[in-house]
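Exercise 7. Predict the joint structure of the components listed below.
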Amino acid sequence: MTVTTPNPTPLAEAPPSSGTRLVDRVFRMRELAILAVFLVMIAVTQAGNSEFLSEQGVKDLLLNATILVLVATGQSLVVITRNVDLSVGSTLGITAFAAGDYLHGGGNPVVAVVLAVLLGVGFGLLNGLLVSLGQVPALVVTLGTLYIIRGVDSIWVGSRQITAADLPGGFVDFGSGGISAVPWLALIALAVLAATAYYLKHYGSGRELYALGSNPEAARLAGIPVRKRILAAYTVCGALAGLAGAMYLARFGNVDSGTGNGYELTVVSAVVVGGVAFTGGSGSVYGAALGGLLLTSVNSVLPALGVSSVWVLAINGVLLLLAIAVDRIVALRVAAALKKRSARRRTAPTKENAGA
Amino acid sequence: MTHPPDPGPAPVLALRDVTKSFGAVRALRGVSLELFPGEVHALAGENGAGKSTLIKTLAGVHRPDAGQVLLDGEPVVFHGPGDARDAGIAVIYQEPTLFPDLSIAENIFMGRRPRRALGRIDHKATHAATAALMKRLGVDLDPDRPARGLSIADQQIVEIAKALSFDARVLIMDEPTAALTGSEVARLFGVVRTLREQGAAVLFISHRLEEIFEICQRVTTLRDGARIAGEPLAGMTEDDLVRRMVGRDLDELYPKQDVTPGEVALSVRRLTREGVFTDVSFEVRCGEIVGLAGLVGAGRTEVARAVFGIDRWDAGEVEVDGRRLANGAPSIAMAAGLALVPEDRRAQGLVMDMSIERNIGLTGLRTTVRAGLVDRGAERSRSLDWAVKLQVKYARIADAVSTLSGGNQQKVVLAKWLATGPKVLIVDEPTRGIDVGTKAEVHRLLSQLAADGVAVLMISSDLPEILGMADRVLVMHEGRLTAEIPRSDATEETVMAAATGRAAA
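Solution:
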């Protein structure tokens, strides 16, 4: 039965691209919400302590966030594919020491950074191969590599320590320098972040990461090279952890065998607080970066307000649970809205048929 | 064997003597099949006959153990689904395979998006191409909305658009119509005919025989993994086809026994769940099969879920054997003798990775547990007992349910619930996606249960099934019960009129 009469229930109330707009809006809102929380927190702190937003204060805030943002960006790629990399803390620690050891021996800073990144790539490849070929849950595999890398690190480093005095002056200066309040390191992290976000949105292989996190079986049937993509995600994640290791060295100048211990949990928190779904397939690296910024700023805000820093962990935990709760509620609401929209579209012709 | 009766075009895609085994199960035994351009080819066979395996072999998901896949007469080896797609083979699977988080446009063009400079995705072109496809299919779906929340029919539409999007030379459709309404099927067939006229080869699978006769020119029949026949459809009757599929004359498809209804077993009064269904009242008596008909989305499944206690109701009451059930408590409903065989057996009825034995055993844990531990022996014998009673086809009872065919999975769900010895059995789409042979078995089983005094509430979108099996037909329309029709008055017309809201209830 073809319907030729004008449609009595206008779909105009739901304009053509309302579906996207709804979802885009939600994601943008998700990121804006974190930004808002962040800004409110900063404003309150500034009101209580006018020293907080001095040039040095802003710089410290950005520097502290930089390394977390970088590692969280890499972690997001992995989490989007419905996996996780718990070894990033260990990777950061061992690459920082390797770069420091090399520089201590009189090496070139650029080569040191490349070395750290390549070492990170190596560990990323190892994780990626184990996860994609072994068909073993990533949580368990990378828990294993977390301990292995940390173990190797401990054996190799022993009780040695790299201090700023062991490093070339230029390297350390670069680590704390910048254009007025914006550190060089933050600019590098921002560039990496923007490039990753652009890649995820505009390149086929980037979208495929979302696809295989969203429905792994469908991804296989759609001919997506699932193993290759997972391997690539882990490799980039490892590389960024390596780069973060080099930056850690430049920033703090102080590395030993315990560097980066437990860092992976902060990274995963940042990613989740930033709205990257742990079940894969959704979220953005910008969100993860904002999550990182929020978590690190809690670290700076509490001392500035005279609150003991013992509260930091508890507050991070609350933020994490809050983020998950919000995501769950929003997801349910969006799903309901989308279903309703489908239902409205489907019931319209039925009514016409009945009237015809 | 004689040469193909159509000597004109050469087959674009063919299988030659293909054999494929999974463990001890031989899914395909030396099967040959030829798909010609400009022809719709039906693949017929009962569940478990090897149809899905055959499709997955053509689609590059499985590689044959022996035999060859021929593309334009040349042997090829597909290393994965991507290879088959690049060769122009599009597959629409029985279960839609979409990415819920991605937009419809992205779902359609995944892996083959329009590109701009530097290999970037051309989002605009993707959107425009998707909008054009939607227009061609005559549906109003926003290309940018995520696939999450789409109805099964809409998901199927997206799958079809995907196949259309790359002008496939070969289109393979595994039960594309199972979840579609009449008008949607007509539209789909329009598209299939256009593709055929443009020279595509189509392989079509459906359990609805009338559809096979409507759209196909040739049919290949599989039974137990072997090819029984490959022949033109012209001149064949449905009975011929069924005989080839089941290898015997089919007993009556709707073996309804006459019974005298007994006591009221299930009584639902003024049940309401806001925004879902309103003021639903009905009774089911012992020995009775009551059909619940209606269009997809009328609220039938939702009523069943509420009665069983999965969803809470806002008003009304439910009684089983005169005892009121608590709101939202499936365990109490079960204890009162209620059983629900859900619509979606994969997601709701079965634990796919668990063994047949354990799946059937799940509902019996209360009786097979001794001193806090599951008595594995008791569980196994109870499960075996039911698997045999329902003639489930399996290699070993310890095999995962996911290795079974759809019809056999459905039997396992039935076994699981029948093992509880229910007083009231609610079955939701008991034969969806099931072959005729198994369908008749399920019907006989339901009829037998009713004769034994079980009260059966059967939700079905299959009108002949409702008319053939039900003592009484309840019809729902937009969340309300619009008609109650006794068996003698139930016809396609009376039921459809009530289902579309045209009849004064």
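Discussion. Confidence is low (pLDDT under 50) at residues 1-6 of chain B.
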